[in-house]
Design brief:
Length: 479
Amino acid sequence: MEKHRLLITLFGATGDLAARKLYLAIYRLYKNNYISEHFALIGTARRPWTDDYLREVVLNSIKDEIDDQAHAEEFASHFYYQSHDVNDVDEYHNLQELALELEEMYQTKGNRIFYISLSPSLFPIITQHIKGSGLATEQGYNRLIIEKPFGNDLNSANELQEQLQVSFEENEIYRIDHYLGKGFVKSLLNLRFSNIMLKSIWNKENIDHVQITLAEEVGVEDRGDYYENSGVSKDMIQNHALQMLSLVAMNEPKDDEPESIRQEKIHILKNLHQYDSVAELQENVVRGQYGASESNEYKAYRDEDKVDAESTTETYFAAKVLIDLPEWEGTPFFIRSGKRLNGKYTTIHVQFKATKEGVPGNRLMIEINPDLAYRLYLNQETIGYTNELKQIELSYSPDEKEINAMPADYERLILACIQGNLNNFNHWLEVAHDWKFVDNIQRLWKEAPKPDFPNYPAMSSGPKAADDLINKQGFDWFD
Ligand SMILES: NC(=O)C1=CN([C@@H]2O[C@H](COP(=O)(O)OP(=O)(O)OC[C@H]3O[C@@H](n4cnc5c(N)ncnc54)[C@H](OP(=O)(O)O)[C@@H]3O)[C@@H](O)[C@H]2O)C=CC1
Ligand SMILES: O=C1O[C@H](COP(=O)(O)O)[C@@H](O)[C@H](O)[C@H]1O
């Protein structure tokens, strides 16, 4: 197995994401020998931490997965901390000094990954100084990982992109969408294109409609201030849901190169049908906001911390999406996502057409989260003295051993970046088209009458209007 040589500089090392996900992901890569003696990480943020304190935090983050304490401590010894306000130009020179020292010590060959895990408003200042201060390497590679959200609308995303591209080439920028690191999202293309049975019928002639659901039980937790300016349409639809839709709808790429895959995804996202009036929007899009649960155990969104008592931010979104391309003419893609729903599940259902009246069409269900499974629903003659049909299910779920061996989303994506594989990261144009779709909805919502919120109780299946949206097309939500 190739052991990679690299130095990671993590901006936002004292933050929530680092503690909850990033240290663990990097530890797993260390445990699995992708990185070892030729690896070091500089953690940076304003807090006056020390190397030892950061190492303690790292050990605490990985504690549930340690099976060899000495090995875990050896891992933590590769972590260094430098207090640094990203607005302070001089500090970047100190970072560069430490980077050179560590490069020498760990023989990392000048390969540098800059992971920016802090507020997006600080992305441009950091990238500008990385290049301006000489922190970018001239020997190995420079790769930039940036977290979502990439802007708050198309304008701000454009501005951010312009600032980033002054310092980094498009093929050096790894825009994270952690859903693209989830096992059964990542494997969607292989499922579709390595099975002739699926590949040959995956088209408008045979697919009746598609349902993509990203349901969450959690509320906004302590992120009320962020969520008020985001809502589910920007938090989950603009990125995760549209990315999944593009993977379901895209044509087969000519090869496995990131450029080819991205080109096909862009082709779909660019052609998402844009609702052109409030009436069309209301016909096809439902927004919702949770009220208190029926038992009053869970509070209403408007009573959450840092949320306006009159807030009109949507915590639920469902839409019928069409793709204005001949290859998908007339095939609806239903997408929905919401907080404080009655379960946590991420699923894709592909409903095939019926072969004749009275016989249900076949259906493929892909369970992505929390369980992983493929379920294929077929028609089979009931055994006995009859030729009546019943629906049967053929299913596959990875076993416990496979699940345990499966990399977690961040682990998979950080490894892909280390390997220089851009396949599961978003190209700028994907992000731009995602925003165009969401911006148009936001614009029309502003013209529409004020929503009558709250319109679904916490821990329920969502607003009734979302059922009506799909029922009037002659379908039901499957989950
Ligand atoms: N947390 C999560 O689950 C998810 C987070 N994200 C994204 O990841 C990124 C980080 O999120 P999260 O970890 O939750 O955020 P936090 O608010 O927990 O952390 C922010 C980090 O930024 C540092 N920071 C803030 N200002 C400065 C500054 N001027 N100079 C140097 N460091 C600074 C803070 O450290 P200090 O105060 O010590 O300076 C802290 O380490 C965001 O883009 C977020 O949208 C994406 C998906 C999920
Ligand atoms: O990006 C985000 O995703 C999480 C849901 O991620 P999952 O992996 O737990 O499904 C969501 O809670 C959060 O609001 C959003 O920012």
